[in-house]
Structure formats: structure tokens, C-alpha cells
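Before relying on records like the one below, remember that each one covers exactly one chain. Contacts with other chains, cofactors or solvent are not represented anywhere in the record.
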Amino acid sequence: MWDSDSHSPREGTTRVCVLQDGEAISYATAIDLLGGSEDFRTWFVDALARAPYSSYFWETPPITDTTIDRDFEYVLVDGPTLALQRARYSVHSPSTSRLGQVPGPSQSHPIWAAMQS
């Protein structure tokens, strides 16, 4: 159902476009799937776990109301020094965004469980 099309524009960088049934999905669709489809979340986390780097930065272009229908894509940038860092976040105050509350690691949410494994 979902797949990805990736290429490396330069060493240490992988550009990825997410596909559904062979067609690129939009950011709007990706956001809906991340929020509403456990199957997609599982596929997406597994895809990130298969990245060709031991640690990496994950980046997407900024999205606005006028660009939310563009193809969902992201880049992975090799970050070998990230493997040496210790995660720092607060379990007491999860962050919020325009899209709503972002779950913190102390909250029961499938994405956190998948990221911990």
C-alpha cells in the first residue's frame, strides 16, 4: 500500500517521497494518516528505522495552508554525532503546536512506543 521513492542528491543525504499505491501523497494526507492510521504509523516508523544511517536529522520543508497539498517529502541527513547525544525532554510538559498537542514520552501513544524500541 505505502512505499517510498528515495535518492541521494549527495553523500550523507537521502531525499524521500512517500507513495500510496504508486502515487505521491500530499502533506495533508500524510498528516491525516499519521493521526488516524496505526498501519501507516507503523509503516512510517519502520521506514525511518531502515534509514541508511545509524543516526540522522529528519527534515521536511515548511508547510502552510497554501502548500499543504504539495507532495509529502523529507530528507534524512547523516548525523553520526547524534548517536553520542543523550535525549533531553521533559515528561512534565509536552509541547504544543498549531496542529494540537504533541504527545510526550510519558503519554501512552503508539508512536512513542515504536520510537523507544
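The first strand starts at residue 2 and ends at 10.
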